[in-house]
Amino acid sequence: MPLDKASVVSDLDQSREDIQTYLEDDDGLVEKYQEAFRSLPRDWTTAEVRDELSTSSYPGAVPISSFDDADSIIRHHAPSDEWESHEAVNDWARDLLLDVPMVATDGSEIPPTTQFNVPLAYVQAAWCLNHHRPTGALKRGQNGKLLSPDEITRTGGEEGSDEYRFVDSSLVGLNRYEHEAAVVVDRIETLAEAYEAGELENPPIVLYDGPFVISFANPRRPAIRNRYLEAVSRILAASAYHEIPVIGYVAGTNAVELVKMTRLLLRDDLGGERTIPDGRILTGMMSPWGDSTIPFLCRRDGSVDGPDDLQRENVRVRERDSL
Q1: Is the pLDDT of residue 312 over 80?
Q2: Which InterPro entries does its entry note (predicted)?
Q3: pLDDT digits (tens, 9 = 90+) for 76-135
Q4: How far is residue 86 CA from its own chain's centroid?
Q5: CA distances from 129 to 126, 206, 259, 264 (A)
Q6: Where are the domains of the chain?
Q7: Cα(126)–Cα(78) distance, rounded to whole angstroms?
């Protein structure tokens, strides 16, 4: 049945006061966190922060040595002072990226269909290489994979029993993740060969649609979680070995790394306050163009504790390239 848009608009209008109250109540807490963020470089050193957080297994984030040289956790992007439109931003980016090859990837999936007796699914990853040349030079490609019943079903019943099999939709997401990771690694290796052969004027860059801290995999079964870790480790290992930067990005985030760290450091002031996303706080501290925070090490949860996976994948990359 189609959505009744008029009804939705009416309900939103009737809830306007509740929504406004919620936002106004949040403003005071946001300002409190903002002041706490501003105080960090003034009142703490890297060593002091690390010492204070040493008893917490996952304090959200920890600073690196550059924290001691900063007078703010916000790193201002000075060129943005002159930008007043998207066109100005695009002009700056155009000059910066001229003749820099950049490839981006993204994935999609068709979940198991119920129209056939045999459960099947499909995943694919598409990529686009932009050489950023005035004459225009784009290359595109896509790689798809049909998932067989064995790849998207698992056994049920008591442990060790094959009493019945059922479709596990989470396996489709896992296969999509692995497939996209394989395409990213393939693009890294292809770009590395082209750059080493002198076919590319500047070192290439790879954009990866997603975070490299895959905490979403933590609640899953160990075997599934390990497959996620191995997939992202292959990307990072290929990037490190071929010295091609891979930039992970997300369109929006509810991460609370800096908030969690700050609440632990300022327990008396913030320990009783509720947690809100870092982005909600940082938005009011940054200009709308180009500002960032100084770097921190992510200590979100156990998903950051996988050095063995990365080292193992580094060995595999080196062994394959030596053949």
Answers
A1: no
A2: NurA_domain (IPR018977)
A3: 999 998 898 999 999 999 999 999 999 999 999 988 876 767 888 999 999 999 999 988
A4: 24
A5: 10, 9, 37, 43
A6: 17-322
A7: 35
Give the Å distances, CA to CA, from 75 to 38, 67, 85, 242: 12, 11, 21, 29
Residue 156 · residue 163 · CB < 8 Å = yes
Residue pair 113/99 in contact (Cβ under 8 Å)? The answer is no
pLDDT > 70 in the chain, percent: 89
Residue 249 pairs in a beta bridge with 209
HSE, side-chain direction, 13 A CA sphere, residue 24: 6
Cβ neighbours of 123 (radius 10 Å): 24
Evaluate if residue 323 carries a pLDDT over 70.
no
Q: Residue 58 is encoded by which pair of tokens?
A: 């996952």
Give CA angle at 244 (238, 249), nearest 5°.
90
85 and 299 Cβ atoms separated by less than 8 Å? no
Q: Give the position of tokens 């290929």.
A: 238
Q: What is the pLDDT of residue 267?
A: 93
Tokens of 25: 């109540």
Of the pLDDT bands very low, low, confident and very high (cuts 50, 70, 90), residue 318 is: low
State the Cα–Cα distance between residues 305 and 284, nearest whole angstrom: 32
- What is the residue-wise DSSP string for 156-216? -SSTT--S-EEE-THHHHHHHHHHHHHHHHHHHHHHHHHHHTT--SS--EEEEES-S--GG
Read off the pTM. Answer: 0.80
Burial of 73 (0-12, 13-18, 19+ CB in 10 A): buried
